[in-house]
Design brief:
The chain has helices at about 15-35, 65-95, 105-115, 145-150, 180-195; strands at about 1-5, 40-45, 50-60, 120-125, 160-165, 170, 175, 200-205. The chain is an alpha/beta fold and about 210 residues long. A six-stranded mixed beta sheet has the order 3-2-1-4-5-8, with helices on both faces. Strands 6-7 form a two-stranded antiparallel ribbon. A hairpin with a 7-residue loop joins β2 and β3. α1 (about 15-35) packs antiparallel against α2 (about 65-95) and α4 (about 145-150) packs parallel to α5 (about 180-195). It is globular and about 60 Å long.
């Protein structure tokens, strides 16, 4: 079961950001379609109450042969990604609230994981990593301070999940400085480790 959260806060909007975001979504949807999994995709900005569900469903296909099943799964993945992209555009137009709270979205990932205790769990956040509500990892002097800040944050249990946080430091106006990206990466790596996820991947690029 895959749960994907997409940052639509003001700093994380542009054609390039959307293209990279949809590349991540497409890869996750295709992976789920090929293995007959469940996909849930939502957008977020300032709070857990300001999220919009873009897609929530099983990606299941039946076919007489394996090759036919793979073809049908690929077609279903393409159709699903197109639907999500259209809903993403609508979500951008109707976004409410100011600021960004990707840290708060970890709770939504935990809630989604609890619905599928028998499934392999994949969690993805596509975000610049900038938290403007609460702790601000862009304001710390170095990576050690970023990790220390992360250790001060209450986080939910994501044990057993494969967690990716991608898009770090990318913004609509361009990438943040390399030093800020280093600190953001350190912060989110520590946050992820503190959730006791089975695997953590944090990067500027996709999974």
């Amino acid at each position: 079961a895959s749960t994907v959260g997409l940052d639509v806060s003001g700093s994380f909007q542009s054609d390039l950001v959307k293209a990279a975001t949809m590349d991540t979504v497409a890869a996750e949807v295709r992976r789920a379609a090929l293995c007959g999994g469940h996909v849930r995709v939502f957008t977020f900005a300032s709070s857990t109450g300001a999220t919009v569900m873009l897609y929530d469903g099983d990606l299941l296909v039946e076919a007489p042969t394996e090759n036919a099943r793979l073809r049908k799964a690929g077609k279903l993945a393409d159709q699903t990604t197109t639907t999500i992209s259209e809903h993403y555009d609508a979500a951008l137009m109707n976004m409410t609230g100011n600021g960004s709270d990707p840290l708060g979205m970890l709770t939504l990932l935990q809630q989604a994981n609890a619905l599928y205790p028998e499934h392999a769990l994949v969690n993805v956040l596509v975000t610049d990593g900038v938290n403007t509500i609460g702790a601000d990892p862009t304001a710390v002097p170095d990576a050690d301070a970023a990790r220390a800040l992360a250790d001060q944050q209450p986080v939910p249990e994501l044990s057993g999940a494969d967690v990716s946080i991608v898009g770090i430091g990318k913004q609509g106006a361009g990438e943040l400085s390399s030093s800020v990206i280093t600190n953001l990466t350190a912060f989110w790596e520590q946050v992820c480790q503190n959730t006791h996820a089975a695997r953590c991947h944090v990067s500027t690029e996709g999974r």
